[in-house]
Each structure stands twice: as C-alpha cells, then as structure tokens.
Design goal:
Blueprint: E1 2-6, E2 9-11, E3 17-24, E4 32-38, E5 45-50, E6 57-59, E7 67-72, E8 77-82, E9 91-98, E10 111-114, E11 118-122
Parallel strand pairs: 2-11
Antiparallel strand pairs: 1-3, 3-8, 4-5, 4-9, 5-6, 7-8, 9-10, 9-11
C-alpha cells in the first residue's frame, strides 16, 4: 500500500482543515488506517484510527470532539476533518496503514505503511 497525504496548510486558531490520504493497492480495505502527527522537537503521536474488523474509530484525548476520521474504501481514501484548531495542533500529519492489534492501535509499530506527511500550521 502506498499512501499520499495532502490538505495541510496555514489556518487561524479556531479554524478548520480537512486532510486527505489517497492509497494505492487493491488491499486497502483490509487495513486499519490512522493519522499520526509530529510537532517540532516532539515525538510522533497518535491522532486517530479507523479500524477494519469492527469498523470503529478511536481518537487521542486531545482529538476527541474536534477531529473526525473517515474512510472511503471505494475511493481508497481516508480523511481527517479537524475543527477548533489551536496552535498546539501545529505539526506534520502522517497517514498510516497497518494491521495492529486493538490494544496496539496507538503505537506507530502497528503500522507498516506511511505517507510522506503534510504540514499543518495553526497561527494567527
């Protein structure tokens, strides 16, 4: 699976942004898809995931209620709608695909495929 993230940019605090990730490969629907982010000087952290088996979504605490992950298997895409953005959301956002066990969905090691990242800057 190859992943291509897009949609990043500069947005004011309180604004919204929608990230997209296009996947190639006919097995996309069999993978969990997730978004991670990495702020300057910080480790990459989990944001959200859309699982496969139970088709559920899980979010990091700082994303709950503000971010929504969705996927369209027919189009091989996964999106991240981000609302009420704050400067703390500034980071490079990465989409990822893999088959992590449920207890490991927050861990980067559960994902074997990564997009190149798209920069989100929240600033006035």
């Amino acid at each position: 699976v190859q992943l291509q993230a897009s949609g990043g940019g500069l947005v004011q605090p309180g604004g919204s942004l929608r990230l997209s990730c296009a996947a190639s490969g006919h097995t996309f629907s069999s993978y969990a898809v997730a978004w991670f982010r990495q702020a300057p000087g910080k480790e990459r952290e989990f944001v959200a995931v859309f699982t496969v088996g139970n088709r559920r979504t899980y979010y990091a605490d700082n994303a709950k209620g503000r971010f929504t992950i969705s996927r369209d298997n027919a189009k091989n895409t996964v999106s991240l709608q981000m609302n009420s953005l704050t400067p703390e959301d500034t980071a490079v956002y990465y989409c990822a695909a893999g088959k992590p066990i449920l207890s490991n969905i927050h861990n980067m090691r559960g994902y074997g495929y990564w997009g190149q990242g798209t920069l989100v800057t929240v600033s006035s």
